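Let us work through a complete example step by step.
Step 1: write down the sequence.
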Amino acid sequence: MSVATTGVGSLPGTTVRDAIAMPFSEDLQIPYLAELPARGPGADLIGRTAARLLDLPVELHPSAWRLTRRNGIDMRRANDFWSWDLDALQITAAEYAGPLKVALAGPWTLAASLELPNGHRVLTDLGAVRDVRDSLAEGAAALVGEIRRRVPAADVVLQLDEPSLSAVLAGSVPTASGAARIDPVGRHDVGDGIQHVIERAGVAVALHSCAPKVPFTLLRTAGVSGVLFDASLLESDSYDDLGEAVDNGLVLYAGVVPAAITPNPSRIDAWAENARRIADIAGIPAAEVASRIGITSDCGLASASWAAALATTRAMSAVAKKVRDSPEVSDA
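Step 2: predict the structure and record it as C-alpha cells.
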C-alpha cells in the first residue's frame, strides 16, 4: 500500500457526481469512493455494507438492520445507491491509474450492529458471526472485482471500517435491550475474523477506527496493511503496541486533521507537529517519516458542510507537505 494522504470516506450532501469527483480533484495520493450517508437508510455504513453481503438478506427495522429471509425495499434502495456511485466512479476515474480505496464495515462492527431475526445482536451467536464474516468476505471480493472491471488501471485498496472493534474486545457492546453487555471476543478470534476477510479480498486492506485503544499489533498480525486512526485518542498505554506494529510493517494514517474544525495556517503547523510526534512515538526515524506515515482526518466528513469538507481535505495535503519538509519533532 502506498503511504500518502487519503480521506476516511464519508462526505456531506447527496450529490453523487460532485462527491465522487472530489477525492480525485484534490490531489490525494489515495483517492477513495466517497460515501454519502445523508441520502438516508442504505447509504449508512451498516446498510451500505449489508447490500454487499452475499446470500445473506437484511432489512431495516426500527431498532437496527436485521437478518431476514429475503431482501426487500431497503436493500433495493441500498443497491441503487451502489449502482449510482459505481457508475459515477467509472465516469470520473475512467483514465485513472493508481491506488483507489473503497470502504465497507468490518466483520466485527457488522456483528455488533446487525440483529438476528429474534432481535438479538449477531455478536451473541458465534454461528451467525461466522455467517456474516463469510458473506462479507465474498461480498468484498466481488466488490473489488467490480471496481477492477470499471477502473482497470486502479490498484484497489479495501478499507474495513471498525468503529466497534475496541468495544467488541472489551466486552462493552450493549445487548439489544441495552440492559447488559455482550461478553468480550478473544483477540485470537477477532484477528481470525479480520484475516479471513483480508485473504478472500485479495488486495491490500486498511482498517479505520475512530475509537480509543485500537489494537495495532493484533491488526498487523491479522494482515492489515495500514490503520487510519484518530490521533487525539492515542494514549500512552498504546505506545508500545503501536511501535511493535510499525516495526512489523504497519503503515500509519494519522488522523491529525479534525473534521469539525476549519483549518488555518497555525492549525496546519500544530497538526503537522502532531504527526511528527506520532512518528516519533512509533520509532520511525525522521529520515523515513515522509515515506512511512500518512495523513488523514480524525473521522469522516459526513456531518461537515461541503466547504468545510473541502477545506479539511486540502488541509491534509498541507499537513503532509509540512511533515515532508520538516520531519523532525520540534524542540519548542
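Step 3: interpret the result. Residues 5 and 28 are 5 Å apart (CA to CA).
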